[in-house]
Write a structure and sequence with these properties.
Blueprint (H helix, E strand, L loop, with lengths): L2 E12 L2 E13 L4 E5 L6 H8 L7 E6 L2 E2 L5 H11 E5 L10 H11 L4 H14 L15 H12 L6 E5 L7 H16 L3 E6 L2 H4 L4 E6 L2 E7 L4
Parallel strand pairs: 3-8, 3-9, 6-7, 7-8
Antiparallel strand pairs: 1-2, 1-4, 4-5, 9-10
Helix pairs in contact: 3-4, 3-5, 4-5, 5-6
Length: 228
């Protein structure tokens, strides 16, 4: 089992109000699964994604990644796991505006200590993979929304992560461009990547082979599908 969560709780303070974002979540995800975390705004799905990707830690409960309890890791070890094991794709792209597409894709490899020539070769290969071989030197403001999301996907793949985590990856895109981006995720899943997509959109969730539905910080349904 690649991912195992047991009785995960997470709360946030908003002024004097305590908001319980996750209320005893238990979830297992096998290597190679294509999963949608689905639910309305405030259901806890983005908080769950942040915990899955070690961007946040639970208040209580256990998170085992590839058999290892992540609670044993210090901040540096968590950062190393995050950079090695996870690739992130966000609704707002999160590209650095002053860097070219190529340099944005290089960044995770830079943090991982990969040499310059290897970084450039890998980033070029990934941008060609997502159909942007002719946009290597373009900066984000010179790219369309769909192109920026393709750069973000290439960046997510830079360190050959075991898991791709995507939070509303088509939320800022028109429907046609969103469909093109989902075809990229479909292809990654077909190639054996573990892909987890956070969405409120049933049309996006239908691409996945498993749909986990959240409401009020709890899993209310977990449905496997024959095909994505």
């Amino acid at each position: 089992m690649l991912i195992r969560l047991k009785d995960i709780f997470k709360s946030y303070s908003l002024g004097k109000t305590v908001v319980r974002a996750l209320n005893g979540i238990s979830l297992e995800i096998s290597r190679g699964e294509y999963v949608a975390l689905m639910g309305p705004s405030g259901s806890g799905k983005s908080t769950l994604m942040h915990i899955l990707g070690c961007l946040d830690t639970p208040d209580a409960g256990s998170y085992f990644f590839d058999g290892t309890d992540t609670a044993r890791f210090n901040d540096r070890e968590l950062a190393r796991l995050r950079n090695r094991a996870f690739g992130f794709v966000f609704q707002s792209f999160n590209l650095l505006p002053r860097l070219s597409a190529l340099a944005n894709v290089e960044l995770p490899m830079l943090y991982a200590g990969v040499g310059r020539r290897a970084r450039i070769n890998r980033a070029t290969e990934l941008l060609e993979l997502v159909g942007l071989g002719d946009r290597l030197r373009h900066k984000p403001n010179e790219l369309s929304g769909g192109e920026m999301q393709r750069v973000a996907i290439a960046r997510a793949l830079a360190n050959e992560p075991e898991v791709i985590l995507a939070d509303e990856p088509t939320g800022n895109l028109d429907s046609r461009t969103g469909a093109e981006i989902m075809r990229l995720f479909d292809r990654l899943a077909e190639e054996g990547k573990t892909v987890v997509i956070v969405t409120h959109d049933p049309g996006i969730a239908e691409h996945c082979r498993r749909i986990v539905r959240l409401r009020d910080g709890e899993i209310v349904a977990d449905e496997s599908r024959r095909s994505g």
